[in-house]
Amino acid sequence: MHWRLNRRVTIQGQTVIGKCGELKQTRQKIACSMSGCIVAGAAFRLAGRTGRSGRRALCWTASRQSEVSGGDTQTGRPTADETTATTATSTFAESFKKFEGLNQPKGDETRRSESFLTLLRNSPFIKMGDPTGKVVEGEVFHVVGDDLYIDFGGKFHCVCPRPPRRSEEYVLGARVRLRLHQLELSSLFLGAKRDLSLLEADATLLGIISSPYRSKAKQAT
Amino acid sequence: MSLYRSAVRLLPACLRVTSRRALVTSSARTKDHDLHLPTPAGPLGTWATLKPRPEKYVDTEADIDPSVTDPLRHPDYFGVRELFTMSDLFDARVHLGHREGSLNPYMAEFLLGSRLGHCVFDLERTAQLLRDALNFTAHIAYRGGIIMFVCRSPQHVHMVERTAMECGEFSHCRHWPPGVFTDSTALFGGVTRLPDLLVLLNTLDTVLEQHGAVKHAAKMLIPTVGVVDSNCDPRLVTYPVPGNDDSTTAVRLYCKLFSEAIRRGKAEREKSAVV
After folding, report:
1. How many CB atoms lie within 10 A of CB A101?
2. Does the residue B241 lie in any domain?
3. Which of A83, A118, B88, B199 is most buried, judged by most C-beta within 10 A?
4. What is the average pLDDT across B53-68?
C-alpha cells in the first residue's frame, strides 16, 4: 500500500495527526520536515482503503509510542529499536513542546513586533477574498428608529432595517449575523470623473447571535 | 522668534516644491539633517528616494549634545514614536481606503496597493508621516501655539470637539464660512489671532469638495496636519497622514494620539517655564 507523506504535522493535545506517506518498509522513521521530529514508526495498519489520491489520515498517540519503546524491556538489554525509540521520544517531546502553544492566543509581545505586511496577510480582510456573499458578525452601535447601524469590522458600517421577527432583541450592543454584498457603496455616475461614495457598506441582516435584551431577561427571571 | 523659525523650515506644501530647492542648496550652510525635514510627501515624482532618517542626532563639534539643550534639534524630543505601534494602527483600521474609482492620483504613492478594488495604505509610510505630524504638533504646543481641530464627519464631530476641549485647544467642526482666515478682522469685528496649527481629521467637506480650511490655511501660511484618505488631495496639507478618516476606531485613535502629543508639549513647556 502506498500513501503519500504530507509535510504538515499539527499537534492537538495528546494526539499527533499527520498525513501518512510512502512507507517502503513497515518499520521506518517518518521524518516530518516541518516539525523536525523523528518518530520510530510502528507497524500500523490503516483503517479503510486508500483512495486514488493516496492520502489518508494517520493517528498515533503518545501512549502508543511508549508501548513501542517499552516493547523490548523483557530481554533486559537495550536493543537498537529501543535506543532509537527513546531518542525518538525525546526528540518528539521537544517538538511537542515547540508546538504546544499553537492553539493558545498570541500574546501582545508577538503581535506588537509583527510587521504591517504580516498583519495584513493574516487579516480577515485579505483572507475573506471577495466580500460578496460572505457571512460576517457585526455589532449594533447606533439605533435610529427602526434603522440599525451595524459595525462588522470593515471601513464602513452598514445600515439595516430592524426585522419584524424578534425585533425587541435588536438593541444597542446586540451581536448580529450579516451577509455582505459590498464593503463600500460607491459607483461612477454618468458625467462624473470619480466615483461617488455613500460612505456605507451594503449587507443583509440574517439573524441575531447574542443580545443584551436576552441576558437582561435572564437576569430578571 | 523660534516659532517663526520652525514655520520657515517646515514650509506648507504649497510652497515646498519650488522653494525647497532654493532653501536646501548644496552649500555647507544648511544641510538636511540640520533642518530635520520630515519625510518627503510631495506629489508623484517630486522625490527620487526616501532619505535615511537619523535615529540619533550627533553633532561632533559640540561640547554637549545640542539635542539636550535645544528641543528643535532633537529628532524626537517628545518621544512621539512610542505613542503607537503598528498593531494599534492596524486594529484601528487605518490601512483601509476607499475604492479605486475614487482614488486621487496624488494619493497613489501612499498606497500599498488595492485588494479587489479596495485601496490599502502602506502603514509603514503612514507611521513615519504620523510620527512627523505628532512631533510637529507637540512642538507647536510646546511653543504655546493655538491648535485648531477640524472635522466634518457628522458621527465624529462630538468626539473631536470633546478631544479639543479636554486638551485645552480649539475646534471648528461646523460649516466653514469663506472669510474665517482670509477676512478674519471683518468677520470677527477686530484683529484676531489665527491658529498656529490646524489638525484636520477630514480634509474633505463633502465627498466631492475639499474643506475650505486647507486652502485658506495655506494662503495664511498656517501649517496643517491632515489625515488624507485615498479620495483626498494631499498637496496643500503640510503634514499629510495618509490613512482612513471614515472609521470611528481610526478617528478615535487620531484624537487620542494628537491630544497626547499636545499634552506632552504643554507639560514640557510648563516644566521649562518653572525651571
Report:
1. 10
2. yes
3. B199
4. 60
